[in-house]
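Encode chain A's predicted structure.
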Amino acid sequence: MIKSENSQKKYSPFFEFLIVFLFSSTIVILLLLLGKNLVYGFSNITSLDSNFYIQMSIYPFQKFSDPYTYRILTPFLVHSLPLSHWTGFTVINSSGIIATGVLMYYYLKKLEFDTLISILGLVFFLFAPITLYLFYNIALVDSLSFLLFLLAFYAILIENDKIYLITLILGILNKETILFTLPVYFFFTLKNQGKTKAIKKAILMLAIASIIFISMRYYYGFTSHYSVTGAFEMLKFHANNHSMFLFASYFLTFSSLWLIALLNLNEIKNDFLKLSLIALPFIFLQILMATDVYRVLAITFPIIIPISLYAYKVKKAKLFLYFLLSILSLFAYLAWLSVGSYIYPLDIMLFMGIPLQVLVPISLLVLISCSILRPKFNIS
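Encoded structure for chain A:
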């Protein structure tokens, strides 16, 4: 862990929040400005998903194609604003990313990371390729899904059932991926409060979640989207588009942080973070239902980013390995783009893919240099 005299200073909670909020807001505003000036169509393009969400923001209670039609929270909020639909999505989703960045800082602090590393985790999230993609394709619901998913994790961590329940309900109204937090809730409650309370609380949460989930489908109509046949068709799609599955999903989520997190699994000290791994199999099962694999896997950020940050607490010899892996990932990404194997225009592929892959090796290099040249910094 990096420690210094400056990192040990205590600030008032309000001042700390203000600094983190301004820091997160400034980065988001700069990214929006840079994107609009560097990338054609930035925050003004539509995909299959975003076309549906734009229509839902105009007619929020009308049935559209499933499963999009059940995800009403973000479109309804946009509909409620006295703004154009594009501006509304920009305001809601940018605010969601800013709030997620701020919450990420406090989540990491609660996981017992120090201030500097918590800020680094915030930066990793804001510069993650999928986050930058959400600014590019602004009319999606993923930004609020990120916020609610992280808030659910934070509520479980601090054992606040009221916040978790509210987050669970809102999460279902925005995107059903919030349900993947239920196993984490059960096992963390089981560990801290015993079997009887864990079962009772989990049944209550599951019952409420089921009522909301089924009610939405009763109102808009049930779907055959989640079926065995659909899963087989999606597997065929991935088999025929293996480059997207193998490369885009790795690079367009967290790149080298995947490998660093994998190598850091035995370094995890926090019990909650260990238990959070239970959610990963459920999240990865989404591959059977989604074409944009990188988007559905990005919801792992409250797990992958903290685990990867343990790299900044390990011995110097491992830091060189992580630095090498991050450099190799950067060159692999550039090599992939050089042969034209990209799924979006080159300008957005560079804009969304390069920042994190440069930040990771730079941060590791700074840590290595500090540990060698600055005696008052140390790695514990």
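Residues 1-8 have pLDDT under 50 and may be disordered.
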